Amino acid sequence: MKLAETVTFGGSGLNRAGALRGQAEGRPEIGDQAIVFWRGKVLVEKSEPPRLLRVDVGHPEFSHGRWAFLGLDGADKVFAFDISHWTPEEDQHPDPTVFYDPTEQIHPDFPNASFCELRGQMAILSPRDAELSASAKALFHWHNSHKFCSRCGAASEITMSGWQRNCPSCSASHFPRTDPVVIMLITQGPNVLLGRSPHWPERMYSLLAGFIEPGETLEAAVRREVFEESGIKVGAVSYLASQPWAFPNSLMFGCHGEALSTDIILDPAELEDALWISKTDLVDAFNDKDGAIKPARFGSIAQFLLKHWLADTLS
To answer: pLDDT tens, 260-285?
Structure first.
């Protein structure tokens, strides 16, 4: 797919400068800039268009925060700092039970910016800001969930400029993990298969998706996941595009599959609903925000693939 890397988070050509990790050059110095995270949210400057606020790494709030070296933006080093230790005002606390939290938190030191859910900003950030934020969000989530050595259980330590954890007890080294996921554009003629998860926003439908199992190819995962969730058999499978998906730490492999059957046998443990929709009806769904179906959100690889399918630009 010629336009594969234009997907949100698809890559901005950031020089990740891996050779500097763990070196003196890969540590923050006064004058270097950092993007800022708080409990998974990213600090976005109130500008037009919105952009990530970059703060000097010498800011006092960073003295207690974790950090990671993200790479070189031109000649400038860029870091990410996590200040989840900060406690906002009582009425600014997010609701941890919702699929998407629209609330914003304002730190008194950054009055012209707010901490926002990346889902709500991902499609309007520049490609560079999108890549930086997705990388940092996934990295900090990995640190949160891998604080202890999986070999001996001892507390591990952050090393290599934020890209590794070492165990001081058994000397094991641990590296960031990305979960591979297939997301499938399953078609038969002018129709595409959509599904709905019960925890999604009302009326939202998207492409079917699922984790790749150990020892499984992309093609096999596509056929298995589609059959398990919808009962649809899939024949030929081809790769289209990928998207880093930092919710929390997946890499989405977008694939096209040709359906060999059309009768849907729903697995209610996986999906609330599944249906075939024609190109004409899908165009209407994109244009009518109050219609019965609301397609996948802007910025997701699902919407990216659906729109290119509608425009006949998958190849």
So the answer is: 999 999 999 999 999 999 999 999 99
